[in-house]
Amino acid sequence: SAPRRSFDGADPLTVLHEVYGYGAFRGDQADIVAHVVAGGDAIVLMPTGGGKSVTYQVPALVRPGTGLVVSPLIALMHDQVEALRANGVRAEYLNSTLSGPERARVEREYLAGELDLLYVAPERLNVPDTRALLRRGSLSVIAIDEAHCVSQWGHDFRPDYLVLGDLVDDFPGVPRMALTATATRETHAEIGRRLRLDDARHFVASFDRPNIQYRIEPKTDARRQLLGFIRSQPEGSAGIVYALSRKSVEQIAEYLRGQGLDALPYHAGLDVSVRAANQSRFLRDEGVVMVATIAFGMGIDKPDVRFVAHVDLPKSVEGYYQETGRAGRDGEASVAWMAYGLADVVQQRRLIEQSEGDLAHRRRLQQHLDAMLALCETVGCRRQNLLGYFGETSAPCGNCDTCLTPPDTFDGLVPAQKLLSTIVRLQRERGQAYGAGQLIDILRGARTARITQLRHDELATFGIGSDLSDQDWRSVVRQLLAREVLIAQGEYGTLGLGEAAGGVLRGETPVPLRRDVLGRAGGSTRVRK
Ligand code: ADP
Ligand code: ZN
After folding, report:
1. Cα Rg, the chain, nearest whole Å
2. Phi and psi at residue 45, in whole multiples of 5°?
3. Is 126:160 a contact under the CB 8 Å cutoff?
4. CA distance 97 to 162
5. Centre of ligand 1 from the C-alpha of residue 335, in Å
6. Whole-angstrom Cα distance, residue 189 to residue 144?
7. Fewer CB near the terminus (10 Å): N or C of the chain?
């Protein structure tokens, strides 16, 4: 390995200047570094792009011994290590991609005390041989990156993370750090508990990403809306479009290509070589739109992603925050855009009902979905709602759709009562339950074949909601679902009375609803006059 000066015992700021060429520490970086250099444990919550790497790399250089970095992102280790070596840092990694002789060389260098940093995949660490090897050398700091992977409630859960708490037994006295860009208060507490970081100091940076503009609009025709949104962005903008299924990923990518956009698909069902090729085109070329499932993005370091679009509803606010957070890491203006509709809500509820796991687990999923719906349906500032979810209070931001164009609201009590009483009558008089489509046809007095056949035109509520359009009613249903006035059940999403229905039927609960405004990005078209 290349000879270099040792930074053992050096001043952190000197290391920051000489190794990275940065003028000063940012945010909490200096405090975190000082705390860890002095031997303290730390839990670091910092949004993506906040500068977490420096907080463990500098202590690793300043303290004697090798800094151990546990990271699940094997695909990125090579690049991370190369970047460090380019700065004169002696860094190596141990993962399944190394050949036998390469691994032997890294192990030798580690034992000889020649490494500043050693990146290891969690599954490696759970091999007894690796633990034994590490014990024979000397560690300066242990950094567990992407620490939210320890949470069984999150969608990035890795069983290998569960045993990382044991590292404290192998290396008493070595400061340990857990770092993540994703954590609600729940996951935060779970990280501390599972990684046995009881005495760690917590460094929680603001999760606000002021350069990201949040926009959520009701879904009517997802593809056309998406196309309109992308066309409203500066030409050649790179972006990510998230969709739920592999099939819709492929269809949307094809549709966008057909419209002349440089769009590529990415999902776990594609051949590894296709995935790698698409990813590297996205990283390398300008103006590529990656249409992907959530399999894409973790650890992708592309600073100039100008937009992230969702055509399906994410399962949780955490997921939404993490995915949208891939936009604008360079600090330049970026947009997080989403279209969501009634069908999304019905589909997600169905997935929860069908999910494996006990009642408590399903309830947890339901709470995640409810928080996501509340964000979608809020008449207040999106950012305030989003940050509130992470326990932060903030003022209205002025950079989200509801701040820029405050939504009109209207008193939805009467429409809600009409809908609820239709549901109640069908249930009482006929013992029947229906989904939104049929209920709306009844309310609007539509004379469809199905209405006639089922004699739904004989119901007392037939036609009492003809003052609202089909689209308006869908919006009402969506918002009532979000507030648990309604619940969607079963495979077909039949609507039933939710917990909050009683108060509405009695006229005790006010029902302020937002009027949907479509196409806020371009020429705005009101659904209702
Ligand atoms: P994270 O891991 O939190 O997503 P990184 O550690 O990758 O963030 O840092 C994000 C970006 O900020 C990188 O481009 C990095 O070079 C830069 N950066 C980090 N700390 C500083 C600093 N003190 N001064 C200037 N740039 C910094
Ligand atoms: Zn706002």
Report:
1. 27
2. -110, 115
3. yes
4. 23
5. 21
6. 15
7. C
